[in-house]
Amino acid sequence: MKVLAVDTSTSAATAAIMEDDRLISEYILNISRAHSQKIMGIIEELFNKSGVKPVEIDLYACSSGPGSFTGLRIGASIIKAMAQTFNKPVVGVPTLDALACSLYNCTGLICPMLDAQRGMVYSSLYSYNCGRLEKLEDLRVIPIEDLIKLVKGKAVPTSFLGDGALLFEENLKRGLEEYYVAPAGSMLPRASSCARLALEMYHKGNYDTYSSFRLTYIRRSQAEVEYEKKHKIELQKMSLEDIDQVCEIENLSFAVPWSRESFESELVNNNLARYIVAKAEGKVVAYGGIWIILDEGHITNIAVHPEFRGRRIGEKLVKEMIKRAKESKAERITLEVRASNVAARKLYKKLGFKDGGIRKGYYTDTGEDAVIMWNELI
């Protein structure tokens, strides 16, 4: 299997072509962040020099974050466009995982760190166990001094890499008695590491389509922060006055939508139901519903207006429904989702749901199967 991988998460622009465990070609350019001007030329050079044709690529991969907001988007846009053109799958590889992978079989701890500005770094901790990379800490944005305290408390020799290791080396010297900084060839992300992990993820079934792939920013960009201040999303209980706007979203979202009467009945007659709307400047932009039956919650429906998708509003709604289920003493929560809805299934898994079964031919409009997903709340 041939994979093309790119990484544009830092100042380095890098691309690689691999075939299974064999690296065919890799290109690294670390002279500026002008990725939009350089990355396509790098990819073209890879194909020209290697003799591999774009149509021969079986899998496309890129760093999924964290890292430079602009850089990540440039890499993702190129990979998604090529995957769409040739109808091939996409794998997003966490940037810090790929960085740690560069120090293969390193003893002790591995601490990749990327500059997050204002004295903060994106970081995690890893180690190798019998040749396999293991993540020991969740990805996070953390002040450099707090990261140093965390590493110091582990009392294990630690190797640092990433642009944060260069930027904060004086802090490491002051705070740690023993530490190591990776050599220049392993200091920044390499597309070959991204490609290697992408192949592993693909064989485990962890991949996306060009349309379902999403980047992982961890922290929002300043533009997103300012947007949310201006267009604040508020979650509140659904009322009868909201139903017209809810029905509009329902009709835009589903081939077989619920009727107005169904929503009215849920609000007026169903004591088991809890319905929530998300509003921006007083307008309903999304909604979700859940039934609480004894110790179990069941998410009945959830939808976001097409103009407001991609802003994590659906994620906020699901989290709120999980919160309300816990407040109602539910011990588990379940839902059905179309088998083809890769983006939704990925979101639910991120929030703790697991596949629990299949309902054959559940959706009457297409006869498609539904995947039953469960989340144990205790």
Name a few traits of the molecule:
378 residues, 19 strands, five-stranded mixed sheet, alpha/beta, Nucleotidyltransferase, domain 5, seven-stranded mixed sheet, Aminopeptidase
Q: What this model shows, in words?
A:
- By secondary structure, this protein is an alpha/beta fold.
- Helices cover 36% and strands 31% of the residues.
- The strands form four sheets. Strands 13-14-15-16-17-19-18 form a seven-stranded mixed beta sheet.
- 39% of the residues are buried.
List the helices and strands and how they pair.
Layout: E1 2-7, E2 13-19, E3 22-29, H1 35-50, E4 59-65, H2 69-86, E5 90-94, H3 95-101, E6 109-117, E7 120-123, E8 126-129, E9 132-135, E10 140-143, H4 144-154, E11 158-161, H5 163-167, H6 169-175, E12 180-181, H7 184-187, H8 191-203, H9 222-230, E13 233-237, H10 243-253, H11 260-269, E14 273-280, E15 283-293, E16 296-304, H12 313-327, E17 332-338, H13 342-350, E18 354-359, E19 370-376
Helix pairs in contact: 1-2, 3-8
Quote the CATH topology of the largest domain. Aminopeptidase
Q: Which CATH class of the largest domain is shown?
A: Alpha Beta
Number of domains: 3
- CATH-defined superfamily of the largest domain: Gcn5-related N-acetyltransferase (GNAT)
Q: Could you give the distance between the termini?
A: 41 Å
Percent of residues in beta strands: 25-35%
CATH architecture of the largest domain: 3-Layer(aba) Sandwich
Structural class given helices, strands, pairing? Answer: alpha/beta
Backbone CA Rg: 23 Å
Q: What does the average pLDDT come to? A: 92
Strand order of the largest sheet: 13-14-15-16-17-19-18
Q: Which stretches are poorly predicted, pLDDT < 50 over at least 5 residues?
A: none
Shape descriptor reads globular
The helix fraction, in percent, is 25-40%
With helices defined by DSSP (H or I, 4 residues minimum), what is the helix count?
Answer: 13
